[in-house]
Structures are given as structure tokens and as C-alpha cells.
Amino acid sequence: MIKIEQYRDKWLAEKFDDFVGFYPREFYCFDNFSSFRVLVDGVLYCTLEHAYQASKFLQSAPEIAEQIINAYSAHEAQKIAFANRDKQRKDLSEVKVDIMEKLVRLKVEQNPYVKQKLMQTKNYIICEDSPKDAFWGIGPNRDGRNELGKIYMKIREELFKSEI
Q1: Residues 64-119: pLDDT tens digits?
Q2: How is 36-76 classified by DSSP, letter by letter?
């Protein structure tokens, strides 16, 4: 039997040798891979991940952006983007947080369920508990920047203030 490393739930790996968990958790809707469409500048993206990855190429390599837009899954969209890093916009490191914030705002505005779940988080810290990504998430050592979580908390705070 091949041992699969499962990042999300270490308990499963400890309790069961032949078990692969796949049930999403309650706030999975915040994940860029979750199936919530986003309309951005007249283009309907299947997921926020499609929109974010395509944004890296809209100006510099529109043919790659088109491949990403038409990718059959968020994972495939990400793979296409990673395979073409040399063609992405040169200023990405300076603008990626602003791009992500714009996309998350659109996701929350366009998907009432996502907005409802965001409001349910009250004043809790929101984090992308990615074991791999220490920029958008908390990373393997739980000391990452959590930029995606910060964006959601910023939007949540604005929504709470607008309801007062």
C-alpha cells in the first residue's frame, strides 16, 4: 500500500491506513478552487482560481489566458499558469495582492452564499490553512503571510461597517 500524505486532516492518517478524506469543510467557499463563478470585465470564470491565473497573462500572453479561462478545472488552470511563468506579466509581484482583492470582492458580491458565510465568521481570524503556500496562506510552519485571509477579513470588516 502506498502511503498518501494528507495535509488537511492528520487525524485520518493516524486512525486509518487505507483512508483518503475528501469532504470539504464548512468555509471551503473561500477557497479559490471552490466552484463559485466570477464575472470579471465581461468574462465569466468557473472559479476565482481561473480568474486569478488568467489575470497573470491577459496583457502579456492572451493566448495563455484563453487556455486558462477554458481549463476544465481550477487545478488545470493553475498548472497552465505555472507551466508558463516566463510569459506572465512582469509586474505581478507588485500587483498580485490588488488583483486578488478585486477578484475576491467580486466573488463575495456576486455569490450571496459566500457573503453569508463571510458574515458568519464574525470577528474570527480567517486564514488559508495551506500547508504549501506561505504567501496567500499560513504555509507549512503556520507562520505565512496569509494574504488571502487578510483580504477576506478586510472585506468582512467593510461589510459589517456598511450594515451599521
Answers
A1: 999 999 999 999 999 999 999 999 999 999 999 999 999 999 999 999 999 999 99
A2: --EEETTEEESSHHHHHHHHTTTTT-HHHHHHHHT-SSHHH
